[in-house]
Target: small monomeric GTPase
Amino acid sequence: MNNARGRAILMSSALASLPRPHVIRRSQSATAGAAPRSVRVVVLGVGGVGKTAMAVRFITKRFIGDYDPTLETIYRHTTVVDDELVNFEIMDTAGQEENSLMLEDKCKWGESFVFVYDVTDKYSFDELTRLKFIASYTHSRLRVNFTPCWILVGNKSDLAENERMVSTEEGRQLAKDLGCHMFREISVRESVHESGEVFEDLWREFSRLSPRSPSSSQRRKFSYRIQDKIPVLNSNASTCASEALKNLGVNEGISTLTHTLKKQCSAPGFTFSTRTSKESLYNDSNNNNHSDDMYDNARDIARIPEADDEDSDPATPPPDYGKPMRSRRNAVVSGSLTTKPPTFPRARRKALCKAVSVDNVFNHLDENSTTASDTTTPLSSSSTSSSTTSLNGSINPSTNSSDKLKTNDSMRVRSSSDAGQNQSDPKKAVSRNPEDLVSIYQDHCRRHRARRCESVKFKRPFNPMPAVPLTSTYEVGGF
Ligand SMILES: Nc1nc2c(ncn2[C@@H]2O[C@H](COP(=O)(O)OP(=O)(O)OP(=O)(O)O)[C@@H](O)[C@H]2O)c(=O)[nH]1
Model:
């Protein structure tokens, strides 16, 4: 009996001397089962200073070597800072955006701000005074229960030795003059950790300044306008999207997709964020080209007849693809490729809202080829990741699209009275061959990119996709 007691005492003292297990301490709300605390960060700076590179480095630890001007993107990334789970929402703004009203909207959305300049570019340094003024002024007019954190970052310090135009001292002085809480000089290219440290320091300072998170009603108030327009990427979205496209045998678009991660998927109908409403965009005088593109692409793919569409037959009711989606607001990106188009007026929404798999396209082809009618039957031909199994292994990823069907006309199915004509006209015939669908899809990618590049708003140089499948210069992944 005494022996047993002695052993128990020995064991408990041995256990007590063991190191305590590392416990991730969460904020009170997190332990209570609620979401981790979060902060919304807006990264501002002129084009090419490395905003996207910095955000992607923080999230993926990888460096983007190429430059592709950003459209807007919001990244969601959850990580542990000082034993606390933090959810970062990082808005990577377009450095070439010149619309200051849009900028005000973004500033209202943000809770903390990172101002980035390039140490080899004096202009990017000087511009920050204006950007900081807009951000400060916008925030001073809001009634919010938090204090934003401001950080000034000088990037590309690896080039400083030969090309520096802004000294470290000047950077520090500007941070002081602008009332920034911190100043950092970093090289996103050379250092894996410096980018992360910027965001981690920002979180520390923000949680010191504002121990309580901004209320959700406050957040919602500023979210709707912005998040309806800007795609949201969860930090594993790019991998899923690339995989889905690869499984479909579509190489084209993958490099854009992974390259940007950031930037919107160039494939028409494939949108990362589906919270875009055509009506709301149209009502907003600041926005036009982007919404037009999204609308046109979705319409092109689904072939929804328009009143002013030459080929459309107004008497033909839109096809019923099932129950329309109720609320786009709930359709936040969940990290996978989605083909849900933007919200349209009810009649079009009915036709557009259901993502149609490649299998369904084949079914439609079967149905329509047996229907005797003189009308053009609209078809939807976008593909979801769920459809990939049917094509797995059956598509050669290195298919050259140049000798495949090219025009959008091939997306239509004519009635049986046209069938003979279609057979003689390869452009109008619809092949059951999945490779043809891939080439049609690739063609859409190309046209979409061209249209977007022509957009005056974003001032993007025209850079058509080569017909040869691209190999990415780097890989984004590891989320
Ligand atoms: N040498 C060097 N190049 C960098 C560094 N950070 C980014 N770059 C390069 O700078 C270029 C622009 O980077 P981005 O991250 O696309 O710039 P951005 O500020 O997002 O530009 P916009 O999208 O136009 O707003 C890319 O070619 C990057 O590879 C760095 O620390 N050192």
Q: What stands out?
A: Residues 45, 47-53, 64-67, 69-70, 94-96, 155-156, 158-159, 187-189 surround guanosine-5'-triphosphate (CB under 6 Å).
